[in-house]
Structures are given as C-alpha cells and as structure tokens.
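Entry:
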Amino acid sequence: MKNFLTQRRNGATAHSKNNFGGAREICGLKRQKCRAPFATVLVGVLALNFFTLAVRADGTNDQDAVEYRNWVTLGGGGSFLSGDAGAFQQHSQLPRDGYGGIESLHYETDLTKKTLLELDGHGLYDSHNYGIGMKLSNPDTGYIKAGFEQFRNWYDGSGGYFPGGTNHWKELYNPLALDRGHAWFEAGLRKESFPEITLRYDHEYREGFKSSTIWGDASVVGTPLVYPNPTATSPTLRGFVPTLLDINEKRDAVAIDAKQSFGETDFSVGLRYERIENDNARDMRRRPGETNGPNAPTRADRYLTEREKLTEDLFNAHAVSETRFSDKTKLTVGGAFTTFDTGIGGSRIFGNGFDSAVGPYLRSQSRDSGFFALSGGSQTRDYVGNVNLMFTPFEKFVVVPSIRFESEEMDGNALFLPTTVNAAGGPVVTNAITKNITARNSLEVTEAIETRYTGFTNFSLYARAEISQTTGDDLYQIFTNRITQLNESENWRRDWQKYSAGANWYPLARLNFGAQYYYKASDYSYNLKAATHDVNFRAHWRPLNTVSLMGRYDFQVANFRGDNDAQTGEVTAHILSGTINWTPVNRLYIQLGSSYSFENTFSTPASTAAGITNVVPSLDSGYLTANATVGYALDEKTDLTLGYAFYKADDYVNNSRWSQPFGAADESHTVTATIARQITKQLRGTVQYAYAQYRDNASGGFNNYDAHMIYASMQYRF
C-alpha cells in the first residue's frame, strides 16, 4: 500500500509563475526537455494492451486456480492547500495540484521454458514521474535489461526571517523544482564454466532549481535596537534573502566487470570510464527592492550570478581476489588505479539582472568584487591497495586484520580576470590576470582489526580498532601578470583513530540487550584537533506473543581544539527512541513510536568571550517525534488503516540585535486514513486521505500551511 505523504517520486508542476528579475520562470524550468510525454504514452499503450488481453483471456470459471503474475495499478489524487506552497511541497514531495496515471505496471511472460521477459513501468501525468524498464533473462546464458526513469523533487525557496521592522521577509523563488533522470543498459553473461561478465551504461542528469543555504543581504528597516544602529546613510544589513541554485548536470558512465573462480580463489577485474558535465549557477539578490529613498546612493538592489562549470573524465581499473585456504581462513586482496582529469570555468558577475555581461550596472557597491574568464583544471592520479585476512584461531572467535594504502598525486591551475568597484561605487574595473597553481601529494595508510566472540552463553562480544596516518605536501602559488604574489609550500600530517566495542546479551528467549561505545579522534599538524565519544544502549523485549517493545538511548559529545590546545567548540547530543507493536486480536494491530532529542548543545568560546558582542551564542537544540498506526480488518476483504505523526523542534535563538536569528521553531501534525478493498481476486481498490498542518514560528508564520490530500488507486491483476 502506497503512503502518498512520504512518496518521494509523485508530484505535479506548479502552475504559478515566479519572477527572477525577468531572467527566469520556474514553471517550464529552463532547459526542461520533453522526455516525459513519450514515456507516459508508451507506458499507457502497454498498459491498455495488457489490460485488454487480460480481460479477454480471463474466461475461466475457476479463478482460484489461476496464478496472476501481472498487474496494472491506476491512481490519481490532489491536494487542497491553504498557506505556503513551497514548504508544503518540500515536506510532502507532492504537487499542490492534481496528478494521476499509471502508478505501477508489471508484465512478464515465458518466451521459452527458461527465458523470461519482464516489463515494468509507471507514468503519473503532470507530476514528472515516469519510468519504463525491460529485462530478458535466461539462467543458462545471462540477461539484458534497460530502462529509463525521471522524477521530481520540490524545494522551499524561502530564505530567513528577521523579526521586527517592515523589511523582514523576502519571497522571491517559491516553489522550486528539480528533475532527476536516469537511463541505463546492462547485459550480463552467466554461462557455466565461463567468466561472469557484466557490461553496464548509465546516463544521469539533474535539471532545474533548488534552494540554497547561502542567503543574500537586506537593510534592516524600522528596528532601532539592532547593532550597529542603522542610519539614513549607513543601514544595518542582515542576511536573510533567499538564494537560487540553477542546476544543469549530466553524467555518463560505462563499466565492464568480469568474475571467475579458479579452485578456491575468486577473481574479479573491472574497468570504468565516467564523464561529468556541470553548468551550475548560484543566483543571489543583494538588497532587493532598495532602489529609492532618502539614501538612494547606498540602496543597492542588484543581481549576482556565480556560474560554476566543471568537466571531469574519470578512468578506473580495479581487481580483487578472494582465497579460501580453509573453513577458518580467507584472504582478500584488492587494488585500484584511478585518474581524474578536470576542467573548470565560470564567473562571478554583478549586474542589472541574472546572467549579465561584465560591465557597468546600476547601484554598484565598493565590495562587489568578482571575476570572469575562469579556465584551468587539474590532473589527479590515485592508487589504492587493500588486504584483509579473516581467520578463526579457535572456535567462535573471529579475527579480521586489514591494511589499506592510498596514494594521491594532484596538479591543478586556475586562470581568471578579477574585477572590483572603487570605494564610492562606480564602474567595474578589470584587474590584471591572475593565475593560481596548486600541487598536492599524499600517502594514507590505514590499519584495522576487528574481532567477534560468541563463546559465552547468551553473550556475543565484538570490537574494532582503526588507525590512519596521512602525510602530504602542498604547494600554493599566485601570480599577477607573471609577478609572484604568493609562493608557499607545506608539509603536513593527519592522524586519525577510531575504537569501538559492543556486546549483545540474550538473558531470555524474548529479551535481549545491546550496548556499544566508540571513540574517534583526529589530529592535524595545522593545529586542529577533534575528538568524539558516542555510547548507545538498546533493548528488545517481547513479553507476549502479541506485544513487542524496543528502546534505545544515544549519547554523543564532540570537542574541537585549535592553537595551543584551546577549545574552539563543543557539541553534545542525547537521543531517546522507542517503538511498541501490539496485536490485541487477529484483526487489529497497533504500532507506536517516538524519538526525543534533548540537551543537544553547541557552544564556542566566542559565545562568552569578553569584548565580543553576542554574534555566535550557544545553541541548545532538541526535537520530539511521535507516530501511531492502527490497522483493522473490517472483514475478510476490507482493511482500514489510521495514522498520526507529530514533530516539534524548539531551539530558536532570537539573536536579531547582533546577527541573523537561527535555529528551528516548527511543529507539524499529520493524520492519515486508508481503506483498501479486495473487490475480486483480480481487482483491488484503495482510497487514502490525509490532513497536514505545519507551523513555523522561525519564519514568522510565512511558511505555515494546512493541506488536505486525497489519493485513490485501483489494481487489476491478470
């Protein structure tokens, strides 16, 4: 049964248009290709033909003796929304309007006694959720399979909220959507006494728009208590303006792998080639709408486009062997060689709109620095070797020591033209060409050992230790008009270690406990240290055949230190979680679950340091989730399912006087009801209803919504 509230790949295009300063519109999504209609028509035609053939062929009176291997499920639904569309679509991954079509389709037939043909597909109209796949297989020879799928993710394009005043919220890019697609072909040779060979090709893409965690700035208006105090000619700025990510990415990969066994040794070798082409951009509004007023020279509504282009060619060769010397000893050896060749391009340009050309623009500001004509790239060679030995020195005691080597060599360069604006604003100045050169060589060696002992009655113990040492040397050079501005080299070292141990205890047949502890630490030669302690306890108890209880507690603390071993930050976390499953009668089941995170703190010395304004206060965060599901069989053919989910986070820090407020203060309630009816042995119908309420105080209520959702489906088996 499909839960359409958490269904990640159903959705519809929003029909409202959004203005990006005249540069873009969300609906239609720039560069959007019309792949979806073809898949929908193809899947629809197949479904109609299969459905017709099934109805015509279903002439038997003894339906109970028929094995139905195929099915088609048709479904559709819609949402009735009051409130913010972007928040609703991101949380539910559902469209705000109607959608429907073929939820799922499966058809299989035996071409010969051992040759099986399988077809699968789905196509939900107006939701950009499409897919079709085919597989032809024979256990004596191998298989061929191919397919294509596309689905859409929605994002909330809102930024932050600044409490107080009149300039506290910017709604620029809402809602946003990003389409993801994947096409593949794979062929496998599976013939006895012959190497197992697999050939695969993948093409993936991402196209569309999504939100960003980087926010632009705006002037604080009508809030006299902020620091520093705003004046007519020197407004106080806060960063709460939403930013847009424009995504256009493609990836193609070809791989061939072969496996063969010789006696007690299994060998596998493979080659892989991958090509990546990215042309992404970050679009940011700086002080939107500030174009007039008493301090017009400093009111600076302008557009910033940061374009990032990347091409990458990857080649990888790898081999693994696994040898079983006896029932107690097995050796695994692996190695890989990889080359990366990358090319970069891009620019950072201010203008009167997005994707502007370099040149003069209105309301230029002194700190509008940028660059254009970026070119360059890097060449990287990576070598990896790994050895694992698993042996059992005595009964019920297993030891797995391993060692791993990785060596990397990288050379890179970047060439670009920087731009600046003088202190009083004015024209854009193109500065002298700048070139950066970087080189890095590193060697990482990781040793590990894992043990497990099950010789105690009702006890099992395990432990693992992992230690890593990495040494390297870096070179950094910067040239302006061939004049050296920076020439630095550095030898560095990084030590990393992690130790973990745990135990499982089974005192009773229906009761077991588990506990685990781990410690990890890293020490960098450039004065950075981090250490983490984590411990958790688990319990599972089944007091009755109809009742199952599970509980867990997690505690984690992490410390960070810098120069002279001074503490730079500390993070702690506590999490309690549990579930209850109860079946009081055969026709009724109840599931309850909850998770509570409390006293999760983040603090830095800056929060209490003398002479520093409260820019980075400590954070004490936590959240609570709870869910309940009740299922009841109304009769032999009808099932009713009711659900409820709750979420609350309350760690909002209103630090608006000194900086932008941060943290979460949101609460959500979701109620669901599903009824499913087996109409005949071949026909099954389902109707689902849900109500969702979301309140977000950290956004000043601008992200709040109430939504009613309904979805109905009908499945026919043949």
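The mean pLDDT is 88.
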